[in-house]
Amino acid sequence: MSMFLHQRSLHNAFSNPFAAPPPSSANSKRPISILNPATLLVLLCLVMVVGVFSPWVTIPHGIFSVSKPAVSKWNSYTLDQALSFVAKNGTVIVCIVSQPYLPFLNNWLISIRRQNRQDMVLVIAEDYASLYKINERWPGHAVLIPPVLDAESAHKFGSKGFFNFTARRPSHLLKILELGYSVMYNDVDMVWLGDPLLQLEGNHDVYFTDDMIPIKSLNHSHALPPPGKKGRPYICSCMIFLRPTGGAKLVLRKWIQELQNQPWSRTQKSNDQPAFNWALMKTAKEVDLYLLPQAAFPTGGLYFKNKTWVKETKGKHVIIHNNYIVGFEKKIKRFRDYGLWLVDDHADESPLGRI
User: Fold this and answer.
1) Looking at residue 162, what is its pLDDT?
2) Rounded to whole angstroms, how far apart are CA atoms 124 and 142?
3) Who contacts 138 (Cβ-Cβ below 8 Å, separation ≥6)?
4) Is pLDDT at 5 greater than 70 in this prediction?
5) Which pLDDT does position 213 carry in this prediction?
6) Which of 27, 204, 270, 355 is 20–30 Å from 250 (CA)?
7) How far is CA 207 from CA 179, 237, 243, 271, 278, in A?
8) Where does the chain show beta strands of DSSP type E?
9) In this predicted structure, what is the pLDDT of residue 167?
């Protein structure tokens, strides 16, 4: 792992601490041409020498090179290697990002660092730009699982690119379970106010949150809620905890199958969440499911729109999800309005710094 996690700083061998003396008055009036035959001959010889020996010479980065140094090493960084590096007690915290989401990733990471859980985070990058940038600043904490998607189209909610981006989620999570790890998955438009790992009571297969706005009692049932008007529950696919059990793997395989049965179309601009709910409902009798407390994991439609409820449940909130709103700028503004856009004043707390 050390070959992936350390880079050496380079000394600039071309710097010269000695200043040249000023020209003498005797020579100051004589024009000097650097294009005389002798100079041109020396330059020609130098070009030939560089051309002959350059395949065997490594030029320090930052002198002539404009590409990232040895960045291709992350192309062969595997999920198995990444998990063994970040996991603590067999558990990892995972998010999936493409380049447009990096500011939200940074905001999310600041909140996680405040709970001292940042070392457990693995970012699954959906493009090479994100993979390189994250591992350049935070070596070992990003991995790419091919194939690479179109990063620009992936962030437009309701688009085919967004569907393709979110539809890869269950397969990524299934790979992690099959390697023997428990995983907490988060979307990056979330902020931690507490430690969600401390909320995982019992030893259930799958933990999840309700995406509905109606207020539940503080001691509400932890069973899968009944189906709504569309014939399925409204569970959020954006905050999930799974153990590497047969039951959790069954849910993920069913989720993948449901996505294949409900592909994106121009008339049915779907995303991964309905398929997740169908999968939960169809496997509920075979899997140990657990609904997390609403007061700790409120949907954005409740937290940002019901000030009375927020006041009554103060001190119980653990993760705030900035959903029920579409658009990067609108999400950022709402986070700012509620003091949750942390990157403005606290970027130094992120493992990535200011990006």
Assistant:
1) 56
2) 6
3) 351, 352
4) no
5) 96
6) 270
7) 19, 11, 9, 20, 16
8) 91-97, 121-125, 142-144, 182-186, 190-192, 206-210, 235-242, 289-291, 319-321
9) 78
205-244 pLDDT, tens digit per residue, is 999 999 999 999 999 999 999 999 999 999 999 999 999 9
Q: What is the band of 355 on the pLDDT scale with cuts at 50, 70, 90?
A: confident
DSSP 242-283: E-SSHHHHHHHHHHHHHHHHS---SS----HHHHHHHHHHHH
Give the rounded distance of the alpha carbon of 71 from its chain centre.
18
Range 7-28 average pLDDT: 40
C-beta atoms surrounding 272 within 10 Å: 23
Closest CA to 200 of 297, 55, 71: 297
Domains delineated in the chain = 77-347 (3.90.550.10)
Task: Give me the pLDDT at residue 60, please.
Answer: 39
Helical packing angle, 128-137 and 102-113, nearest 10°: 30
Long-range contacts of 88-92 (CB under 8 A, 24+ apart): 88/119, 88/120, 90/180, 90/181, 90/182, 91/120, 91/181, 91/182, 91/183, 91/184, 91/197, 92/120, 92/121, 92/122, 92/176, 92/181, 92/182, 92/183, 92/184
For 148-159, write each residue's pLDDT tens digit.
766 555 455 455
The stretches of 90-244 forming alpha helices (DSSP H) are 102-113, 128-137, 160-167, 169-178
**Parallel, antiparallel, or unpaired for β 91-97 and 121-125?**
parallel
Which tokens is 325 given?
């709103």
d(CA 123, CA 115): 18
